[in-house]
Amino acid sequence: MSAAVTRPAVALYVGGFEAIGGIEACFQDLALGLAKQPVDLALFAWATDLPQLRTIARSGISVCRSGLRRGSQWRLPDRALFWRHGAALKDMDTIVLGKFPPPATLRRMHAIGGQNRARRAEMQYITAYRPSEMWGATLPRYIAECIDTMIVQSPDFTADLRAMGFAGRIVEVPYLPPMAPMTPAHEPAADRVCRLGFLGRFVPQKNLFYLLDIIAALSDSQIELHLFGEGEHDALLRSDAAARGLPVIFHGAVPREDVPGAIDSCDIFLNPSVSEGQCLVALEVLSRGRPFLASAVGAIPQILARGRFGAVLPLDNSAAAAGVIRQTIAEWRAGAWAPAAVADDYRRAYRTDDILKTYFDLFTGVGRADGAASAS
């Protein structure tokens, strides 16, 4: 009689799970995409009882949640999450992190992961930002000691990690891409106002006051800027836009299920961030067939190089950035940015099934030197 086949068990550790966030959306997409695969998944997060977490639980995935959010400056929510659910890591073959808990907690996860399995659990990390932007020139020792595999979205991220002395495995794979309907909705250009869009959090990293400077430099153009999101700079952005008489419309936060409609309501998207990782918003925008004009940070240069997807915005010259946008608007008015064509190019560049299989193989140990848990 053959021995019973053990399905691989994978922990997806998000830590603080915010209602709006790129790494949260990445892990939600991975969880739902892998839910029907031969793997036992558990997602670990500290958060309120968010709709996203309920959706993940309904797919059959275990959600290990702690509701404690107070004391985050002392990392208490991460410690509470581990105290409440950490023992479950003993039954995991792989622990995949999107955010890092405190050093002592990460070392405990590393020590107990896989204790009830045939071997120690492999520790993997999916980069949320470019490593040199996160850590400078030196990789923190506790990360170098605990992480076996780095999953990155750009060759530049790999170069950063090697320069920092990371000796483990590095695998380049994009976030699981959102997919658009075959024909994204759009309104022909004609002579109407061109609707520029921004989707994301209103935080310093997104450089939105510089975006307002760019809009001011486009005063001779027939445009509107539509901002979808919220954050610490919300009130200041509203007052600045009003004081300068800029054509800016604030829509507030957008639930993820309404993101496609928000993107479809605009023609061109702008993203002048000073720091990014994969930039999931870029993939969401391209999936809806809209050009994406963004600063050359994080993995954005690699995204733009995979097709006719947009252009790079300079970060230190609002007049020059306005010139890039003005040229794109002229091309859009001439019909050169048909949404169906951009979306088709996106689908060719980002094949969901292939990318999902890559993640499945990574998480379940295919190709790992010490073998993998068996998948039936």
Estimated radius of gyration: 22 Å
Tell me about the biggest sheet?
Answer: 7 strands, parallel
Using the alpha-carbon principal axes, give the shape.
globular
Q: What is the string of helix and strand elements? A: EHEHEHEHEHHEHEEHEHEHEHEHEHHH
Helix content: 25-40%
- Helical/strand content category: alpha/beta
Tally the helices. Answer: 15
Description:
The protein is α/β, with parallel strands linked by helices. The chain has helices at residues 22-34, 51-58, 76-85, 103-112, 131-135, 141-146, 155-163, 208-217, 234-243, 259-264, 280-287, 300-304, 318-333, 339-349, 352-364; strands at 9-16, 40-46, 62-66, 94-97, 122-126, 149-152, 169-172, 194-199, 223-228, 248-252, 268-271, 292-294, 310-312. The strands form two sheets. A seven-stranded parallel β-sheet has the order 3-2-1-4-5-6-7. It has a six-stranded parallel β-sheet with strand order 10-9-8-11-12-13, with helices on both faces. Helix 7 (155-163) links the parallel strand 6 (149-152) and strand 7. Helix 8 crosses helix 13 (318-333). The radius of gyration is 22 Å and the shape is globular. Mean pLDDT is 91; it is low at 371-376.
